[in-house]
Amino acid sequence: MKKNFSDFLEEVESARSKLKCVQGGAFFRGHSQAHHKLVPTLLRNRIDRETEHSIYSECYARARRLMPENTNPWEFLSHMQHYGIPTRLLDWSESLASALYFAVKGDPLNPCIWVLNAYLLNKAARKKAGRPDIEEIIVPGVDPLEDYFDHFVLHEDQGKKEWPFKLPIFLDVPWASDRIAAQKGYFTFHENAKSLEEQVPNLVQKVEIPDSAIPDARKFLERAGVNEYTIFPDLEGFARHLKTRYFH
Description:
Radius of gyration: 19 Å
Number of domains: 1
Number of helices: 12
């Protein structure tokens, strides 16, 4: 018997339960291909530290004027990520609909939704780093957190420091971008190229979206008003929304 969209939603709820997510404890990420691992683009491409330094420095020198004023390194990094520049960040959302949109847009091949317990991830990361294992989401600028710039951009002779977290950490970077706000965006930040599901298999679950459920998933998103323009609330997103509506 073919699974439908309702079956998929039940599996998402089952995943939330297995991960012991309560209230807003679950976060979602959509993949258009289920075999893609939970590894940020920068690390997936095996970019070395020198190249990472160059990417950040050039963005800072050439694109800082395009960013909101007084942007700190974590906020700057989140802007880079949302405009497609390779970083150590991986996008997550508190909205299942936003994650579902990215999973079924275009021509998906075995799409899926990943479900993560962010609170337990940070508790595990803190414990491994020898810190109080508090279950909370880290907000840069509010909670104590080492500076990305000091640990990953500076050279050794400039006083670069060792990053304390070997496990990924979950961040709520302040929403200084319309795109991040629209997508209800959060991030995991990764120190190494080992996938999240390999490092903490008990804290993340993959829920595949069967081909038979994709049409109803898209219909749900359309009726919920989730589209290119609501996900990317700028002129570029509006243009893509019009193209999708009238030319596809």
